[in-house]
Amino acid sequence: MDSTHKSILVVEDQHIILTYIKGILKNKFETIHTALNGADGLELYKTHRPDIVITDLQMPVMDGLEMIQHIRKIDPDSKILITSAYSNTNYMLKAIDLGVNGFHIKPIDSDRLLEQIDMLVKQLRLEEKALEEEEKFRVLSSAARDAIVMMDINGMITFWNKGAERIFGYTQEEVIGKELHKFLVPDYYYEDYIKAMPQFRNSGDGEFIGKTIELKALRKDQTSITVELSLTSVKLHNEWNAIGIMRDITDRILANEELIKAYKKMDVLAHTDHLTQLSNRLDMMEKLNYECLRFERSAVQFSIAIGDVDGFKEINDTYGHQAGDEVLSNIARILETSIRKQDILGRWGGEEFILMYPKTNLEGALVVTEKIRKSIDEADFEYDQKKIHATITFGVATYNKKMDIDACIKIADEALYKGKKRGKNCVVGLSKNDQNNSHRE
User: Whole-prediction pTM value?
Assistant: First the structure.
C-alpha cells in the first residue's frame, strides 16, 4: 500500500534500533520524526501531529506509557503501535486500556512491521473516507440535494424534489399520485406501513414520526440502498401529511463496514504470531489472566507448560534460519494436533511455546505434556531435502490461589531450566514449594 503522504513519529531510546526502523519506513513515509525518549517524542507530536506513532515502552526521561497517556488527551484517535521486548503483564494491560492500535514484540521483523503499518494507514484512509462522506452529505443537505418527499393520508406522493430524482432515479412525473410504498420500499416493510396508517390519519402521529431512522429503499433499477430518513408530519387542508427527508448513506455504511473489518483484522494480527499463526505472547497473557479470574470464581485449578526447542541455535547454525523457521512451524502443527480440545496453545517467544491446560492438576498436565513431547521426539522434519530431528524440553506448573500468574510462569520456567540441566528432551513439573513432582525422560 502506498502511504507516502502520511507522516510518522518513531520513539526509541536505542539509536541502532531507531535507525533500523527508520530505514524500514523511509520509502513509506514522506516525513519521519524521531525521538530518543518519551518527553522529546511528546513535544514532536504536539508540534507536528503525525498520523502514526511507533514507540518503545521503557525509555529514559518519560516512558512510552506516559507519553501515550498525554497523546491520548490530545487526540484519542491517534494511531499508536508499540514495539517492545518488555512483557510485564500490568504494563501491557495498561497499554491496552489506553487503546493502542497494535503491538510488535522485539526483535523487529521488517515484514511484520510494514504489514502492521499498512493496516494502520488503511484505517486512516477509511476514516478519512467516512469523514469525507459526512462532509459531502452536509453540503448536499444545505443545497437541498437530499430527497424531500411528501405523502398524503392515503400514502400517495404529493411532492418529489430533484434530490429524490437523483437518489431514486424516478422523475417527478413518474411518481406524483402514486403510492410510495408500492415501488420505493421493499415488501418486508409494507405490512408495518399498513398497520401504522390508521393512527397517522387520525393524529399525524406514529412510531417513527419525529425520529431519524435508517432503512432500506429501492431505486428505479431495483438496486437496494440504505437511506437515513427523518420523518415529520404537517397538517394541510385539515389532513395530515408526512414529510420525509432522505439521504443516501450507502457509501458511508460500506466505508464503516470496511473500517470495522480492518479493526477486526488488526485485532487478529495483534494477537497472532506471524510465523506459526498461533496465539502470541500478548494473546496468551490475556487468556491466562482470564483463567485466573475464572479460578477466583470457581476455584478450578489449571496448569501451564512452557516448552523450549532443544539446541535450536545449532539447527539455525547448521541448516540456516529458514530451516529453523520451518522447524518451529512444524512443531506448532504437532502441538496443535496433540493437545486436547479444551487446551490453549501459543508461541511464547523465540523457540519457546506455552500451553495452558484448563481444569487440570499438575499430575494430569505432566501426562498430557509427556505425550506431546514424545510426538515431537518421534517426528523428523525435512527442509531442502535434509532431515532435521528436533526435541523439546517442557517445564510444568499448576496455578493456585497463593500465587499470581507471573509467579506460576516463573515456576514453569524454573522447571524448564531443571529439565535442560538434566539432559533436555524431558518434562519436569514443579509445585509452589519448588519440589520436583515428576520427571519423564
Answer: 0.50
